[in-house]
Design a protein that fits this description.
Number of helices: 3
Shape: globular
Order of helices and strands: HHH
Largest sheet: none
Length: 84
């Protein structure tokens, strides 16, 4: 993995984590936490969407959309676990 691809990966994770924090109101983890949530969300979406046959497109915008949906799912699950 080159430095550029690592930076793009972190940038997509940061944007996706920030968007997920905005969409799931009142449940953000700060900048570093949102980056981690975005990266884990991208991983979850990368595993889940192909199994379901979903494809939101390619490129940076498609990656951000996939990662954001995965991060929102992750935040919802974390919220449900914390309430239980």
């Amino acid at each position: 993995m080159t430095l550029e691809s690592l930076l793009v990966f972190l940038l997509i994770g940061a944007v996706a984590g920030w968007l997920a924090g905005v969409l799931v109101k009142g449940f953000g983890f700060g900048l570093v936490g949102n980056i981690v949530v975005g990266i884990v969300g991208a991983f979850i979406a990368g595993l889940l969407f192909p199994a379901l046959g979903l494809n939101l497109g390619g490129g940076i915008l498609g990656a951000i959309a996939n990662a954001t949906i995965g991060a929102v799912l992750l935040l919802v699950v974390i919220r449900l676990v914390k309430r239980a």
